[in-house]
Amino acid sequence: MRAVLFDLLSALLDSWSLWDDIAGSEERGRRWRFEYLRLTYGTGVYVPYLDLVEGSAAAVGLPGEFAGELEARWDELAPWPGAGAALRRLARRLPIGVATNCSQVLGVRAAGLIGAPFRSVVTAESAGFYKPDPRMYEAGVEALGVPAGEVLFVAGSPRDIRGAVSAGLEVVWHNPAGLDGGGAEKLAVAVIDDLRRLDGVIESL
């Protein structure tokens, strides 16, 4: 592998906790987030990210105003433990980048919270498509300047695994939230719950 492309909002950042806090409980936050993921992964061509966040809240009986609160509190997103150090170490020998389902402004802000030297930050807005459209992954690979066959994708959700594999990428699933893979985990070359294990996985490929 000559480069690593990361999902951002699930693979590198614990966005689950912020959504739960805004919603008032883990149960409400998860209902909202899973509905958002369902809507987003079925959208295809880019529409405003916060419209999807607002629509998913309304669909599960939560206030649409939660979308504005998420935007206002965006910089409270916290990296998963060890993420920054792991990526800084990795970036000393391989270029790293991000492919994330959100707006360009919010994607750049979120990437900055990791504290890692990303070569590129590609968002659904900049690519024009939401994952799992293969053009989103292709845009992320192109921004890294490395052939797709030599790029490892680190997914944050089961749908992201399937999308990246369909786009021809080898995939590692970082699953610190303990999500049910629904069988998608079988498509990944490895499943890890700590990004500090990623170096060892890359060395084994």
Structural notes for this entry:
By secondary structure, this protein is an alpha/beta fold. The protein folds into 2 domains: 3-14 and 77-204, Rossmann fold (3-Layer(aba) Sandwich); 15-75, no CATH class. It contains 10 helices and 6 strands. Helix 6 (104-112) links the parallel strand 2 and strand 3 (120-123). Helix 2 crosses helix 3 (49-59). The longest helix has 16 residues, at 26-41. The model has no long low-confidence stretch (mean pLDDT 96).
What is the secondary structure topology, with strand pairs?
Blueprint: E1 3-6, H1 15-23, H2 26-41, H3 49-59, H4 66-72, H5 83-91, E2 96-100, H6 104-112, E3 120-123, H7 124-127, H8 134-144, E4 151-155, H9 158-166, E5 170-174, E6 190-192, H10 198-204
Parallel strand pairs: 1-2, 1-4, 2-3, 4-5, 5-6
Helix pairs in contact: 1-2, 2-3, 3-4
Structurally, the number of domains stands at: 2
For the record, give the distance between the C-alpha atoms at the N and C termini, rounded to a whole number: 8 Å
Read across the widest sheet, the strand sequence of neighbours is 3-2-1-4-5-6
Unreliable stretches covering 5 or more consecutive residues? none
Relative strand content: 5-15%
* CATH level 1 name of the largest domain: Alpha Beta
Q: What order do the helices and strands follow?
A: EHHHHHEHEHHEHEEH
- Determine the oligomeric state from the structure: single chain
Mean pLDDT equals 96
Helix/strand structural class: alpha/beta
* Number of helical stretches of at least 4 residues: 10
